[in-house]
């Protein structure tokens, strides 16, 4: 190989090496750019994530004890239950007080009117009819409507619907009630532990605490309750001593 050929050879070789170097440089540049671009994206994503996390923490920290809302409905319900219990207690106390006041008023009225009854006192016959079922607490007697034998703490006196019933003896009205067996029922405190009970009445013109003299109107004979439908219209008349039934006939003449 002569000198001319050698020079051409090295010239071509140098050009090839230069091309290779340029190619490698281009690839390196592209790689560097891609790497830096990816790195910037990763850093931006990390920054965004940190900012979101920081915002969440700040929001969580901003909610304090003062921001917590109590369940008002439950609190109100509790208050309502307490108020209801207090009202019920007050009502029970008021009812007991009223009953006690009524009892004291009756006792005061009895003392004021000097009502007195004992084993020697007499009763007036309270209704116009005859005895349909007599008093019997030592043996049972037959009740036609019930078709059975029972003890009877009162006397069942026949009458007419609408008939006036007068007090068999002076007394103070201590109770007015309505029961299934005796209908509208009036109790008179006759004094000394004696009471008279008048049942099967209607249109009673009295109130608890009223004084009723002997023979004065207590009420009118009503239609009989279902317990005395066969017996017909009647007056249920019972006398008690300290709450125990006694025979009314023991206090009536004849």
TrEMBL record:
Ranges of biased composition (kind: Basic and acidic residues): 46-60
Sequence ranges assigned to domain M23ase beta-sheet core in this UniProt record: 153-248
Regions crossing the membrane: 15-35
Name the UniProt record assigns to this protein: M23 family metallopeptidase
Biased composition (Acidic residues): 79-88
Domain of life of the source: Bacteria
Region (Disordered): 46-107
SUPFAM superfamilies in the record: Duplicated hybrid motif
Organism encoding this protein: Ruminococcus hominis
Pfam families linked: Peptidase_M23
Keyword annotations from UniProtKB, A to Z: Membrane, Transmembrane, Transmembrane helix
């Amino acid at each position: 190989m002569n000198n001319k050929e050698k020079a051409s050879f090295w010239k071509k070789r140098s050009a090839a090496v230069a091309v290779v170097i340029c190619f490698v440089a281009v690839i390196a540049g592209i790689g560097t750019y891609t790497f830096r671009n990816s790195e910037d994206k990763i850093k931006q994503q990390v920054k965004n994530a940190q900012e979101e996390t920081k915002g969440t923490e700040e929001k969580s920290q901003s909610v304090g004890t003062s921001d917590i809302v109590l369940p008002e409905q439950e609190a109100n319900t509790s208050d309502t239950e307490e108020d209801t219990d207090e009202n019920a207690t007050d009502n029970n106390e008021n009812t007991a007080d009223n009953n006690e006041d009524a009892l004291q008023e009756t006792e005061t009225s009895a003392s004021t009117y000097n009502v007195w009854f004992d084993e020697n006192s007499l009763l007036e016959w309270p209704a116009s009819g005859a005895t349909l079922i007599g008093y019997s607490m030592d043996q049972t007697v037959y009740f036609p409507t019930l078709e059975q034998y029972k003890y009877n703490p009162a006397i069942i006196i026949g009458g007419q619907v609408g008939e006036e019933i007068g007090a068999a003896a002076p007394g103070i009205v201590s109770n007015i009630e309505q029961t299934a067996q005796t209908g509208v029922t009036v109790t008179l405190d006759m004094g000394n532990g004696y009471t008279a009970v008048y049942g099967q009445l209607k249109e009673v013109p009295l109130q608890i605490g009223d004084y009723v003299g002997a023979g004065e109107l207590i009420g009118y004979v009503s239609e009989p309750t279902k317990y005395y439908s066969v017996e017909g219209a009647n007056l249920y008349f019972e006398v008690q001593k300290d709450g125990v039934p006694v025979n009314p006939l023991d206090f009536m003449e004849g």
